[in-house]
Specification:
Blueprint lengths: L1 E5 L6 H14 L4 E5 L12 E2 L2 E2 L9 H11 L5 E5 L7 H6 L2 E6 L2 H10 L8 H15 L9 E4 L6 H9 L1
Parallel strand pairs: 1-5, 1-6, 2-5, 6-7
Antiparallel strand pairs: 3-4
């Protein structure tokens, strides 16, 4: 099974992917996660916005390499999970997903979580706004023409609902 998990920055995509991989492994399945962040181009090759690297551009991700790696691993694992801001952006990935989960949070929750995120140092307010606008433009599931499950990333995930979706 190939599962795509998408949603805005700080919505809980990685957390959900980790919960799922743990669940599948506990149930005897070979499961692995691929984080789109691990497939970014070198910073010098990524577009800029106001002299800042635009990590929120789909041009920041090496979609060809991700697709190549996933194609190889899906033959060797029972469950392969791809999670990322642009999980639903590449039509080639959308064509091979078995299941899609969109993790939704409010703009307020996003702003609060992003303000607490100190991994990258200070993030200007205009860039936080840019991240949200990029998500609205390129990260929402309206770009996919197939079914998906919407999961709330506001609090704890409803794992019963999510696992029910994955089992059907």
């Amino acid at each position: 099974m190939l599962i795509g998990i998408g949603g805005p920055s700080r919505s809980g995509k990685s957390t959900l992917a980790n919960l799922l991989v743990t669940h599948f492994r506990r149930n005897g399945k070979k499961a692995i996660i691929f984080h789109q962040d691990d497939f970014v181009f070198p910073e010098t090759q990524i577009p800029k916005i106001k002299d800042k690297t635009d990590w929120e551009s789909p041009l920041s991700i090496d979609h060809d390499l991700l697709l190549e790696v996933v194609s190889d691993f899906k033959e060797r694992f029972d469950v392969v999970i791809i999670e990322g801001f642009f999980a639903f952006h590449d039509d080639r990935l959308n064509a091979i997903y078995d299941k899609r989960i969109f993790v939704k949070i409010s703009k307020r929750t996003f702003i609060i979580r992003k303000a607490m995120d100190s991994r990258w140092g200070y993030i200007p307010t205009w860039y936080i706004d840019h991240i949200w606008k990029s998500y609205l433009k390129m990260g929402k599931p309206s770009t996919i023409k197939t079914d998906y499950l919407e999961a709330s990333g506001e609090d704890e995930f409803d794992m019963k609902k999510i696992l029910g979706y994955l089992e059907r």
